[in-house]
Structure formats: structure tokens, C-alpha cells
Design a protein that fits this description.
It comes from mine drainage metagenome. With about 90 residues, the protein is α+β, with helices and mostly antiparallel strands. Helices cover about 25% and strands about 30% of the residues.
């Protein structure tokens, strides 16, 4: 897929478990990851979690913007926007 599907996420590092849920007031999905936001560990956990939930190889998930913040723009290859939305809703 040229360019991939872009999604906006809010990430909460340091959670007790990995989880995703849709929050309409935030305008998108909130993803909880276990690692704290130190040394890029939370970003790596986010990439692994999205890869698993979306059924794509880790190399198909990229962080486009927000590497040092909690609000992230991600790009996913191999899935349409509708598939990404459906799969993240199923994972929540």
C-alpha cells in the first residue's frame, strides 16, 4: 500500500497492561503500554502492540510524528483505514 494508512493515537505509558480503547472525546484511540516513556521503550511497545492487534509485521508500523510526546501519528502498511478502525475496535 503506497503511503499506508495514517492514524492518530494518544498513548499512556506505564500502564499495568497493554490495551486499546476508543475515546470519542479525544477523537480517536487511546493505547496503554506497560513500559515507561524512557529511552524509547514505550514507543517500541506501541509498535509491537499495534503490529499484533492489526496482524501486520512490525516493519509495517511506523511512527510518523510524536516520538517524544503522548500524541502520535502512525502509519500502517497493508491495511485500509476501515480495516485499522475495525481491528482496533475489536481489540478494545
Amino acid at each position: 500500500m503506497a503511503g499506508g494508512t495514517r492514524i492518530f493515537l494518544h498513548v499512556r505509558p506505564g500502564a499495568s497492561r497493554e490495551a486499546v480503547r476508543y475515546e470519542p472525546l479525544r477523537g480517536g484511540f487511546v493505547v496503554q503500554v506497560r513500559p515507561r516513556a524512557e529511552g524509547g521503550e514505550a514507543n517500541r511497545a506501541l509498535l509491537r502492540a499495534l503490529s499484533g492487534w492489526l496482524g501486520v509485521p512490525p516493519a509495517s508500523v511506523r511512527l510518523l510524528r510524536g516520538g517524544r510526546g503522548r500524541e502520535k501519528w502512525m502509519e500502517i502498511d497493508g491495511r485500509t483505514a476501515e480495516e485499522v478502525d475495525r481491528l482496533l475496535h475489536l481489540a478494545s
